[in-house]
Amino acid sequence: MSFLGPWLDNTRKQHIKLWTTVFFLILAVLVGINYFVRPHHAEYHFDKYLGFWPLFGLVVALLMIIVMKKIVFPLITGPEDTYDSK
Amino acid sequence: MTANSFYHPSLFFIAAALILPFLKGESWWRWLTPIPAIAAIISVITVKSGMYGEIHYLHQTLLMGRVDTLSKVFAHVFAIQALIGIIYAFHVKEKAHHVASMLYVAGSFGCTFAGDFLTLFIFWELMAVASTFLVWLRKNPISTRAGFRYLLFHMFGGLFLLGGLLLRFNAVGDFSFAHVMQADVQLYDWLIMIGFCVNAAAIPLHAWLPDAYPEATVPGAVFMCAFTTKTAVYVLARGFAGFDILAIAGTAMAVYGVLYACIENDCRRILSYHIISQVGYMVAGIGVGTAMTVNGAVAHAYAHILYKGLLFMGAGCLLYAAGTSKLTELGGLVGRLPWVMILYMVGAVSISGMPFFNGFVSKNMTILGAVEAHRLAIGVLLEVAAVGTFLSVGIKLPYFAFFAKSENNIELKPIPINMYIAMGIAAGLCLAQGLFPNMLYHLLPNPVHFEPYTGWTLLQAFMLLSFTGLGFYILRKVIVPHAGRNFDFDVIYRLIGRAFINLVCKPIAFFDGHWTEVYRTGGMRGLMGAAAGARWFDVKGIDTVVDGSAYTVRGIGRISAKLQTGKLQDYLAWASVAALVIYAVVWWK
């Protein structure tokens, strides 16, 4: 049990480059497979095109982070003890 | 058809809750706590469908045990989760905590098997009261206040249910709880549905959930995340499947929850918003109302209870060990809590719909069911929610809790082994049901024609999730959590509450002021005269008779003075005990 923690700690600090490369390789391979594998009948029409779901995931994630964190968050946040200050 | 071979799981938990306070000793009694859960599992697995436990009361027929495929699947997972929760809470030496959680679970089973609205209502309120204690038992001023807000809101929701069932009784003449067709829905049906929707945390009635759950005790939150909302999902599926408004409400919940989770800082508040989101999938599936989407909703409830419990257990470990669940104060803990990270991640990939884990099967069943019912917009928005789920629960939370910082020297309390065991069981079940979906399929209310694992569905899921990861990677400096309390609909509740109090109090204060004036001038004189007459009667006639009974009254007075602590919490506890005793008397009459 005790080797697991130090190993995880070590690998995340020492091999960050390696993990990033592996991550991008996976992304590339998935899109590569998508070139050959398409839905039998497209559920949403658009998903018969190459790269629809990768684009969907990426765009939704980017928009969600930017809109919520940069625009909405400053508008609706208050001090942590808002309800407990009295 | 009435049979006698059903041992209602609520009975096990209520009996245990009533016995537990009388057991002496420091902690040996903890070994007894899993018994009611194990008995419940056996009872639910062995029971045959049918109607059990009819009670005739006030010319009404009440039904305690309606056992059919729909109630059985919910009871099945409730029993398993009760056992997991009890194991997770095993180190707790406070009896009140175990009693509260057992009564809460008993309430949930009671609702699940209730065949009529009156039985449902009684157990519904038992759940609300018992779960409030799981918040209060955290025993700090913040949780005390959060508990009161939680209780107030659930009483408010309960009143809708009560009003609806009484109006319905007036119109129909019985309390029977059956499916309502959308075509002949009445005002009382809407009231009942609103009562259910409060517990399902439907927008805009949801803000109690992310307000109270993060303030509950560590094991208390594990119980709460499983039972309240999923009992509401069950009664919605039972009564209101196919209601279009639920399809819309559920989709809104699914998206709304992930948007808030994206900007939250507290681990357990992130997970709370994701309860709203996940329950949204279920409510949407119920609203669409085809055999496949109702199956999907039920399957999702089953899977959700397991993985959400696991996530709350993981976040609870962080809170227990580090004393905080704020992401801004955590980070860099992977080396020190590796198993918490790994077990948490099993829950995280399950909720995100990663192939080979149970969320993948149930989520896709709901989404594809909606698409096949030609509800494309619902399908797409549920996919948006899936992206948001992986973003917050699958990446943001673990990244900022376990990674992000290079070191974290925060002092960590050792985590009891029972917490790891409970998480291990939940993680094993999440994986097993993902690998063998038939475990889930044979429990579902409708026949299943759905093959989750095809080349395309696997590829689609992996592409969606990994490119969500790319989005996080690009904006990882933007999504960094910040301390703060985000306003939700609770701001509006407060405004309405204040306005209501003013509306009630101002006229009363006005009237009270003038009445005092009138009373002082006119009323006193008459009262004094009457008092003089009464005193003469008292001294001459009554004293001799009453003196004997006065000693008895004084004795009772002493006991009741002890009970009158002036704390609403204590009164509530006594009231629920009294209610249980009365109910037991009626049951065995």
Fold and architecture overview:
With 86 residues, chain A is mainly alpha-helical. Chain A has one domain (4-76). Chain A contains 3 helices and 1 strand. The longest helix of chain A has 25 residues, at 52-76. The radius of gyration of chain A is 21 Å and the shape is flat. Chain B is mainly α and 589 residues long. Chain B folds into 2 domains: 1-240, no CATH class; 242-488, no CATH class. Helix content of chain B is 72%, strand content 3%. Chain B has 20 helices and 4 strands. In chain B, strands 1-2-3 form a 3-stranded mixed beta sheet. In chain B, helix 12 (291-322) packs antiparallel against helix 16 (417-435). In chain B, 53% of the residues are buried. The model of chain B has no long low-confidence stretch (mean pLDDT 89). Classes of the chains: A mainly alpha (86), B mainly alpha (589). Strand 1 of chain A pairs antiparallel with strand 4 of chain B.
SSE map:
The complex is a heterodimer of chains A (86) and B (589).
Chain A: H1 4-14, H2 16-36, H3 52-76, E1 77-78
Chain B: E1 2-3, H1 9-19, H2 34-46, E2 50-57, E3 60-67, H3 69-88, H4 95-113, H5 117-136, H6 141-172, H7 187-200, H8 208-212, H9 218-240, H10 244-261, H11 267-288, H12 291-322, H13 338-351, H14 358-372, H15 376-402, H16 417-435, H17 438-441, H18 455-474, E4 485-486, H19 490-563, H20 568-588
Parallel strand pairs in B: 1-2
Antiparallel strand pairs in B: 2-3
Helix pairs in contact in B: 1-2, 1-4, 2-3, 3-4, 3-9, 3-12, 3-16, 4-5, 4-9, 5-6, 5-9, 5-20, 6-7, 7-9, 9-11, 9-12, 10-11, 10-15, 11-12, 11-14, 11-15, 12-13, 12-14, 12-16, 13-15, 13-16, 14-15, 14-16, 15-18
